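Researcher: Batch entry, complex prediction.
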Amino acid sequence: MLPHSWKIVGRVLLALCLLLFVSCFRAVVHDMFQVNSAQRYDSFGAGWASSLVVIFFSIGVVLLAFSQEYREDERIIHIRQQALARTVILYLFVLALNLVANLVLGRMLSMDSLVQVMLIKRTFLCVPAFILYYLLIFKLSLWSENKKLSRDEE
Amino acid sequence: MKNNIRVERARARMSQQELAEKAGVIRQTIAAIEQGRFNPSTVLALKIACIFGLTVEQIFELEDSDWEK
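Model: C-alpha cells for the complex:
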C-alpha cells in the first residue's frame, strides 16, 4: 500500500480528469465508445482529451484505491479484503451479463473483442472501472461499519 | 466470540481512545471488538490482554456458535 499522501495526487488527477471531461464532453464520450480508431471524433485536441481523461482517471483511481487511510489498522485491512472480494464477484457478474447480452443480440464474441471489452473501449468494464468499483465498495463498507458502531454506542 | 473488554476498561478507568492508542489501533476497532463486530488478530488480542495485565482467556471467550463455523 502506498503512503497516505499519495491520495492527494490521486485526487488532483481525478479533478483534472473531470475538468477535461466536462470541457470536451461530446468529443470524449464519442471517443470512448468507438472501437475503430478511424471513427474517432475528428476535432482538434479531442483525441488527446479522451486519452488524457482515461490516463488521469486510471492513475487517479489506482492511487486513491491503493493508498493507506489516514489511520490504518487490521480492521481497515479486513474491510479492504472484503471489499476486494465483493468487487471481483460484481465485476465477474457484470462481465457475464455483458457476454450474455452480446450473445442474445447475435454478435459472435471473438477474443479480440473480448480483450477490447476488458481493457478500454467499454468504460464500465475496463480495468480502471474495476478499481473504481473496489474504491466505492470499500468506502461504503467503511462508512456503513462506522455508522453501525456509532448507532450501537448510543 | 464474546469479551469483557468494556468491563476491564471501566475497572482500569480507561477510555476506548486510550486503549486504542496503547494497542496501536484506531478507536473504532476497539469499539467493534467490544460489540462483537470484529474479531481481533492473535497479536492484537495478546496486546489487549497485556495492557490489562490479564491472559487472553480472561478477556475473550469462545461461544457455541464459534464451533459451528
